[in-house]
Amino acid sequence: MVGFFIGVAGLAVLEADDDVTMLATRRGDVAEVFRAHARYEFATTGPIPGFLVADVAAAADELVGAGVELLGDPGTWNGQAWRHFRGPDGFVYELKSASHDPFAAQPGLEWVGARSPGWPAMAEFAERVLGMRRIGKDSGIVHLRMANGDGLELFDDRDEQHAFMDTGPTVAFGIEDLDAAFERLLATAAEVFLEGIRSDGVDRWVHFRAADGCVYQLMERGQGWSRPPASSQ
Hints:
The protein has four helices and 16 strands. The protein is α+β, with helices and mostly antiparallel strands and 233 residues long. The model has no long low-confidence stretch (mean pLDDT 94).
């Protein structure tokens, strides 16, 4: 998986030890690949997306006030802090603080999608507690945006079109040239879904199952999309 993230998604290694390899997108978002059974015994619901906040301790207090279950102990390292929690959809997520600019134009972790019976409660939680903005709703899908324009989409578990999202939350890695990345993807043993590259007329993306058995996405932002200014955070 480390080689996959480097060779296909274009991430760079920051740190590594016997338990975990820490990689970064060009924007500075961090992705961590753990050895099986390392560190977090509650990490049983697939990839764990982290939501960037200014103050992890204060944000964790808000979660507790909203009745959310915190998991494990708070952590700090090299100017970063984090705290895990279980969302209303049953999946594990993370609060995270870091020094990089989430509004920077470089590719990062652009999108998260989750399919579960608890999707309506998770959508309400994302708006009310996490401060996201609901931008639309289709049949069985709620579309939300974070302050920097990154997306969260929540799917009804009865939505058969996205039935392949069966490994917990799906995280998208931003790519500048999706066609080239797709060729690199096809050279691996990854399983590609929905007939390959798809588009909504602005963005382009592809879903796939990687070597760890989890579902991910590669996403290329279109020319008609731009990040909100940092002052909107």
